[in-house]
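Researcher: Hi, I'm a grad student and pretty new to this. My advisor asked me to get structures for two proteins we've been looking at. I'm not sure of the right format, so I'll just paste the first sequence and hope you can take it from there.
Model: That works fine. Here's the first sequence with its structure tokens right after it:
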Amino acid sequence: MSVSTRRRHPRRRGSSGGGRRTQEERRSQTQARLLEATMDCLVHLGWSGTSTTEVARRAGVSRGAQQHHYPTKMVLVAASLEHLLEAQRLAYESAFAVLPAGRRNVEGALDLLWEVFRGPPAKALMELAVAARTDEELRPLCRDLNERILQVITETFERMFPENELAPDFVPTLLRGLFAMFVGLSVQNALDDDASSHQEAVLRQVKDFARLIVPQPGTATAASPPPTTDTGSTPPGDAAPTSVTSTACTRGAAATAPPSSAATSEPASESASPLGKAPVAEFRAPDAPAATHT
């Protein structure tokens, strides 16, 4: 009661529209307290320990007020999860925006995402998913929640990296895989707090891969691979090395043979394709012996 009283007086002084505006603000504030108290219960008590009575007690509101806004536990939890997602999104994007310029890239974004997955709210969501395995009422909520989280991750990625040139049908699958991997890593982290640095090693490799396919914010494309040409089309008599690898393999021929016109013009026309524009199949099969993108 004392909390709501303290907050009521400033609103009345600053409100010029009468009681209607103040009532709406009070309603929103009551809902926010209920939603935050629900998440607090889920984090500390789990799904089975969370009850509408305990939520009302922690929120400092009456049971009648709680039932007026959220009649059942399921409705209350669903609203709390949506409230959490929006709060986490805003906090995540704000944290990314204030990173130093050198870290405001895909690596910094992944570091921040890992912090989110290691936090108490994320662990509470995992407990919900486990409980939903045997709870038919909770299962649809968790199934929809997974898709909602992926939607938020995808929308956030597109806002933060609008210049990425990945194929549209590749991004959702890529982010779904990233989400699944981070869920698994966070389960391990909850058990051992990465005492052996295994999760850190996985994250480091993920960032190395991400750096290849997602451009730095503010740049049009990712870094271009070294230029190469198809040496199979060069006549046997024209030994013209076009890459470091082929030069090393044909040192003797390169020392005497003059460069052909095809070799000198090729880098300007073919090698300008950035890694971000490469076909999706190339990322799925990095070992394929494609001569033009190695």
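Researcher: Oh nice, that was easy. Here's the second one.
Model: And its structure:
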Amino acid sequence: MKKRIFALMTAVVLVLALGSTLAFSVENRIIDEAGIFTQEEIAQLESLAEKYSAACGLELMIVTKESTGSMSADWYAGEEFRKAGVTDGALMLLDMEDRYAWLSGTGRGAQLLPDETMELLLDLIYGKLKRDDFAGAAEAFLKEAQVEARRASGELMFPRMSLVAWLVCLGIPLIAAGGFCIWVVRDYQFRDVQYEYPCRQLGRVELSQSQDIFLGKTVTSRTIQRSSSSRSGGSRSSGGRSGAGRHF
């Protein structure tokens, strides 16, 4: 009897845990508080976020807000990670009042997507943000973030291409190189001809004498005073997160 009760309780716990995981995967990756996405776009982005998150091992999220108020976008990104229970992930935060985009990574997401990579991702989606194509920008972020994360982890050593694409990429250079080699061989024919230049008849050597005079040297020394104060650089994000932002 005790074994049956223990087995039943274990099954209930597993079901609840699985249910919470599925709910997070389906409902909480796209948080559209600003209301800039249609229902169809949200459904599409949810599907892509789930797909790309599973592909790269990071929780990828999209968050939109009407305004971040007096708080920084980086602070809100940290809050969204905390509320969602995400320890390894990346998100795109859009502040619609200031028209400001902030990309942030936390945990393993910060390691695989450092500040420099976030700047690159901003470059890729900036045009869509300027055109108010927010759904396109979100889709591009999800896709490119997982690609960069997989590349940083060593999973993508080379871009994925079909067999036909590989044949085209390898075949064209090989054909061009082969054709060039054949042209060189046919043009020059590489005949075994020995040619000796008549240096005794046509050559001439002229020698002249030169002299260098050392006049002196001048050495100038200068002491450069070190500044006692120094500016400390740092990441644009805080709390162990990576990040980059830009107005659009």
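Researcher: Is there anything I should tell my advisor about the second?
Model: You could mention this: Helices lie at 2-27, 39-56, 73-84, 108-112, 115-130, 134-152, 163-188, 199-202.
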